Recover the amino acids of this structure.
């Protein structure tokens, strides 16, 4: 029987949740940092979240996909995952900014980490030199976590807030932790529906808002050069909508200014943030 553990939520130590008893308890210590088959995370501000049901559904689907792989591990079934998600939601504080992460380890254990959220970052400078996308399972968040952490360290060392990943054709697949959208005139563009990338909750919410406001949505796979010519936003659950204000060509030098329409990002950010609803 798989177990569920929780850490970082104000208790003296991690807690475990048993699917068998439905109770939280102190887990047995385990050596080393676990590897992950699936993870998901979202921003909670004073008990309100954007797209929580979508995040839960994406994590449950990732667990099911992981269970179908020939790993030999005994992964939890959907009923246990749903009880875990409900129990985890109840443990997230109702005040303050939090960035909880639900996890499935490669040995079949479900965990929750309740982490303080960093300050919001409405703008970002992006490294121009892209990174080749070497993720093994780009549609699932978790298996490539170590690789993404290393990429983030590279971008930070170059004094950039994010870097883009590219495929064999040189076109952009995603950011390290983000998905790009960009404006082509009055058309809001995003990656193709069948792109081999994570099913971004924030992108789905934003494109839904675009349709509600009568904005045409285009689909394309851009090059980095194309994004440098457009107003570009990077989307994530943590920071929501970040406007790309600069492109870093050479570490240590001033970034190249990015084009944008004044006030547009702020308007759409407010619309996106207004979608947050209470968790309970």
């Amino acid at each position: 029987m798989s177990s569920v553990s929780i850490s970082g939520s104000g208790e003296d130590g991690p807690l475990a949740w048993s699917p068998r008893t439905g109770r939280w308890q102190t887990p047995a210590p385990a050596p080393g940092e676990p590897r992950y088959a699936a993870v998901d995370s979202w921003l909670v501000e004073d008990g309100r979240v954007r797209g929580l049901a979508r995040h839960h559904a994406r994590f449950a689907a990732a667990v099911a996909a992981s269970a179908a792989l020939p790993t030999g591990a005994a992964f939890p079934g959907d009923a246990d995952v749903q009880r875990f998600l409900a129990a985890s939601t109840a443990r997230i504080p109702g005040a303050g900014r939090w960035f909880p992460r639900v996890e499935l380890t490669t040995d079949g254990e479900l965990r929750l980490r309740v982490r303080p959220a960093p300050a919001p970052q409405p703008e970002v400078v992006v490294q121009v030199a892209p990174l080749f996308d070497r993720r093994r399972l780009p549609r699932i968040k978790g298996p490539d976590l170590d690789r993404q952490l290393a990429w983030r360290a590279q971008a930070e060392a170059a004094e950039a807030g994010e870097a883009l990943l590219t495929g064999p054709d040189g076109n952009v697949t995603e950011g390290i932790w983000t998905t790009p959208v960009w404006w082509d005139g009055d058309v809001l563009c995003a990656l193709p529906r069948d792109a081999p990338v994570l099913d971004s909750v924030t992108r789905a919410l934003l494109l839904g808002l675009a349709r509600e406001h009568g904005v045409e949505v285009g689909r394309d796979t851009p090059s980095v050069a194309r994004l440098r010519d457009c107003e570009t936003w990077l989307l994530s659950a943590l920071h929501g909508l970040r406007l790309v204000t600069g492109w870093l060509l050479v570490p240590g030098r001033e970034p190249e200014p990015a084009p944008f329409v004044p006030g547009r990002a702020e308007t759409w950010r407010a619309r996106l943030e207004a979608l947050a609803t209470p968790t309970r």
Notes: The radius of gyration is 19 Å.
